């Protein structure tokens, strides 16, 4: 027997059916469904896809997990230096659009990109050059005359100038501990400044004791000068920093002329070597080629010759007086990253290369054929520096294989490898270990702490670290003042320069 609820449900169904029949809803719904259906094309034959034959599944495993040696040497050694290899400057290169300007003397008015005026910089450079004290060598002796230290009594204000090349470190003390050992170093806020806008490739002190001036070259072709003795209380726009743009590619080297500090030689990846003459207010063009110039140096007491690494492995010797090349040799299989001369025996030259070697050469026996090395230091990866110690008795090499090589002995036959983290990426400059003011210490950047490690050549390990909260970036390229003990400059990828001084 149907319940009351069931009777109401059936009555509602009947009423709804009558309403839908009166509105002809079902017929219209059928027409809409038929219109939306796509007619099937009977002429088409739908073939069943062929089933692929079953193949065994191969699991990929690396050679390392299988216990085998890798079949590749990895990325090329030059990859970490910059993300693009420098192409030859041929006629189709965009750089040639401004070749008329580049291949000619460049006046300061066109090269200056700094704030304010460069006239105070010219006055300072010319004033220093006019009071240069040349240090003569005794031809009968191989020992070099030591420079005078600062006159604390103030009786002599004339600058004391180094007459050697960029890395010629003269003996500032004959025995005992140096000022660096006795007194701690500090970093003051007024000794921190952004000198150039781009990543710094080279930083150098002017080799003058009484004038504290730093020069820096960056990735964008800029050369900046920072006079730390400038009075910052004066209302000047330059603030002691003077920025020039003499090149169009990274600046690889800066060399102060030995007997005229108002002249600075710069080399660049754009294939140009320029001579900045502050007295003439111009960047003269010294040399041009269609290859990148990766390094440049001068022999002690020979300011008329330039030694530079051109292209990939060639060493060129340029005579400034004659205006032509006097010699050239293919010394390495890849680019030459640094060139240095022994301060006690300037005939002995050291080169480092991306081919993984650092070599010693005797210029007296180079000849016209392929020269032979005196000694060769082999690293597993690129070597970015090879510098002689202040006495010339040791050689320090820095490689991205995380070792600093130390070559010593009467004939440089003793080799030690000091472990140090030298890994960098393409955004920061590669590390280069430089000597201090004697043969006891090597200074190199610390990647993790953003400081400077002091490596003892006797203990063959890091014994001290220069670190300060003001130093907020890695000081990749370092230079120790050749005459002022304890004055160190560290430069960064952001164009900043930090100058440490004794407290």
UniProtKB/TrEMBL annotation:
Keywords from the named record = DNA damage, DNA-binding, Repeat, WD repeat
Return the PANTHER family for the record.
Answer: WD REPEAT-CONTAINING PROTEIN 76
- Pfam families associated with the record: WD40 (PF00400)
Q: Where are the WD repeats?
A: 329-371
Query: What does the sequence similarity comment in the record state about its family?
Result: Belongs to the WD repeat DDB2/WDR76 family.
- Chain intervals for the UniProt region annotation (Disordered): 34-54, 137-164
Q: What Gene Ontology terms describe what this protein does at the molecular function level? A: DNA binding
UniProt function note: Specifically binds 5-hydroxymethylcytosine (5hmC), suggesting that it acts as a specific reader of 5hmC.
- Report the InterPro entries cross-referenced here: WD40/YVTN_repeat-like_dom_sf, WD40_repeat_CS, WD40_repeat_dom_sf, WD40_rpt, WD_repeat_DNA-damage-binding
Q: Name one GO biological process term.
A: DNA damage response
GO cellular component terms, semicolon-separated: nucleus
- What this protein is called in its record is WD repeat-containing protein 76
According to its UniProt entry, this protein's organism is Raphanus sativus (Radish)
